[in-house]
Amino acid sequence: QLQLQASGPGLVKPSETLSLRCIVSGGSITYGGFYWAWIRQPPGKGLEWVATVYFDGTSYYNPSLKSRLAISVDPSKNQFSLSLRSMTAADTAIYYCARQGGLGATGGPDVWGQGTLVTVSS
Amino acid sequence: QSALTQPASVYGSPGQPITISCTGTSSDIGGYKYVSWYQQHPGEVPKLLISDVSNRPSGVSDRFSGAKSGNTAYLTISGLQAEDEADYYCSSYRANGTLVFGGGTKLTVL
């Protein structure tokens, strides 16, 4: 059974860089042509797609966040990561990692990790 | 990037059907058959209900169905049950590898 586990620092200071990691278990990140995504959800608000990566490094970013984002993948460790620079209070959210279903990067997420809460505060 | 438009709230009585709309543009919903719907109970992870406009994953109740017309997608829940009370989100592919979600709809079962 495929499982995803996101991890992060929990608390980040304003202007700092957030680093998140998602470990995939129960299946290979290189198998099946699946893409892997980060989605976030501010407390009490809706879902926002952040970025997507393929095992070969192909990546896509939310245009609203692109200038601050970097997504990467490490097939040897079966994990992918996200970096978000210049954090502000508006970036406070639960960050979920997920597998995207369907062909290419077209499908919505079909398997979600539990998410990790990131709070931006001094 | 702008989100897809969903009603903030919908209400229904047990046993009745309800439909939630999700409106986008020809650059997302109208241009592709890649609309998904999610259910999220408080404090829980979103659960995929519908993929590719109308496909229901294994294990999802057949009371949930999806459709699309032009730039608007629809999620219909037939025979409302108390446990259907939750937030519902749509998502769509929007070209160049990007995804977009709707703002979410809170379903209240009266």
Helices and strands in order:
The complex is a heterodimer of chains A (122) and B (110).
Chain A: E1 3-7, E2 11-12, E3 18-25, E4 35-41, E5 48-53, E6 59-61, E7 69-74, E8 79-84, E9 93-100, E10 109-112, E11 116-120
Parallel strand pairs in A: 2-11
Antiparallel strand pairs in A: 1-3, 3-8, 4-5, 4-9, 5-6, 7-8, 9-10, 9-11
Chain B: E1 9-12, E2 18-23, E3 35-40, E4 47-50, E5 64-69, E6 72-77, E7 86-93, E8 99-101, E9 105-109
How do you describe this structure in short?
Chain A contains no helices and eleven strands. Chain A has strands spanning 3-7, 11-12, 18-25, 35-41, 48-53, 59-61, 69-74, 79-84, 93-100, 109-112, 116-120.
What does this structure look like?
The complex is a heterodimer of chains A (122) and B (110). Chain A is 0% helix and 49% strand. Chain A is mainly β. In chain A, the strands form 2 sheets. In chain A, strands 2, 4, 5, 6, 9, 10 and 11 form a 7-stranded mixed β-sheet that branches. A 4-stranded antiparallel β-sheet of chain A has the order 1-3-8-7, with no helix packed on it. The radius of gyration of chain A is 13 Å and the shape is globular. With 110 residues, chain B is mostly beta strands. In chain B, 0% of the residues lie in helices and 44% in strands. Chain B is built from no helices and 9 strands. Chain B has strands at 9-12, 18-23, 35-40, 47-50, 64-69, 72-77, 86-93, 99-101, 105-109. In chain B, strands 1, 3, 4, 7, 8 and 9 form a 6-stranded mixed β-sheet that branches. In chain B, strands 2-6-5 form a 3-stranded antiparallel β-sheet, with no helix packed on it. The model of chain B has no long low-confidence stretch (mean pLDDT 96). Classes of the chains: A mainly beta (122), B mainly beta (110). Chain A binds chain B through residues 37, 39, 45-49, 52, 60-64, 96, 100-102, 104-110, 112-115, and chain B through 1, 3, 32, 34-36, 38, 45-48, 51-52, 57, 89, 91-93, 96-104.
Distinctive features:
heterodimer, A: 122 residues, mainly beta, seven-stranded mixed beta sheet, four-stranded antiparallel beta sheet, 0% helix, B: 110 residues, six-stranded mixed beta sheet, three-stranded antiparallel beta sheet, 9 strands, 44% strand, globular
